[in-house]
């Protein structure tokens, strides 16, 4: 078969020539025939429509002939395509990373610098490729230190730095220093050992950690100095995650690690009721209950609890007030009130008896006869004879005599001052005694 026949036969199957698409196969065949037999500087790569690749070259001979060489390079092209895809995938992954990724060789020259590294260090990729990583990214004060993870990457494996996370100082393009976390891995690329450094700016994380530590320290200072016992219980498993010193003293605990909140409640049903209230309302205020110490003794207490987040997990913080002394004081106050009420009753009864006694001990009124004769002695003897024994036994006044009013007081109805009553009893009749206030009016 002639060369022309071979060219015209293969032209319709040709898809690209040296990467350029063949749009007109006849035109391609004419150009190919025009060049056939002439020495070519470079072989042509032909891509056929069936996905095969060929390398074609023409070699004129001294006899005037032409050696036509066609080599199947399909497998080579497949490998090259795979490598390109892998390289593109690797570049996409590296540039998609949010953390700086820097690749160097054993000499410390930068081979790769991803987008995150550009943002973190302030350099463009082209500015640092081929430059020494120590000069570009390590602070001057750290460049002679063998402890810095980027100073001597060639010794990273021997120093045990590979695969470990190290905190190092890194330098921005403007000369500012920031804290970074560094991890180094090594690999073999094209027969050359390379190192990949993964960095992360941890300045913000360190600031947050310091703020968290300061906040926790403030909480502990307040909670441990507060006289009210404070207990924090994790909701998920009911385990005590914090107990202030006053709480440990109240419950008799030396350590609260592993202690469950259920151990503090003497009645499991009561604890479930309290937890139900907290779950429903988010809190309880001064709820009175009975709690138990580590030794088994119980005591009355008032709980004030709130739902919180402790280390990212739901928890309940409770303030506990021991009501033992308050209950004793309340009982003592109630006893004293009862004693006071009893004393007041006794005092009232004593006053009543004293009044009765005072009336009973009033001197007998002297009476005068109608003729003006003094009857005091007769009345005195009569009173002592009839009432003396009764007065000695603290009995009421004689039943046959009405109370005698004091001087100047109106006589009660039916008493001595009522003449109609005296007349009925014959007091006003001749020969009988008539009342007179001789003690107060001796001249009457």
Overview of the structural elements:
The chain is of the alpha+beta class and 444 residues long. It folds into four domains: 3-78, no CATH class; 97-201, Beta-Lactamase (2-Layer Sandwich); 209-322, PAS domain (Beta-Lactamase); 362-435, no CATH class. It is built from twelve helices and 17 strands. The strands form four sheets. Strands 2-1-3-4-5 form a five-stranded antiparallel β-sheet. A hairpin with a 2-residue loop joins strand 9 (177-189) and strand 10 (192-201). Helix 1 (3-10) runs antiparallel to helix 2. The termini are far apart. The model is unreliable at 364-369 and 372-444 (pLDDT under 50).
Any key phrases for this structure?
single chain; 444 residues; alpha+beta; Beta-Lactamase; 4 domains; five-stranded antiparallel beta sheet; 25% strand
Assign a percent range to the helix content: 25-40%
CATH architecture of the largest domain: 2-Layer Sandwich
Give the N-to-C terminal Cα separation. 187 Å
Main sheet characteristics? 5 strands, antiparallel
| Cα radius of gyration in angstroms | 60 Å
Count the helices. How many? 12
Poorly predicted regions: 364-369, 372-444
| Overall strand count | 17
In what order do the strands lie side by side in the largest sheet? 2-1-3-4-5
SSE-based structural type: alpha+beta
Question: What is the fourth-level CATH superfamily of the largest domain?
Answer: PAS domain
Q: Regarding CATH, which class of the largest domain?
A: Alpha Beta
Average pLDDT, all residues: 77
Number of domains: 4
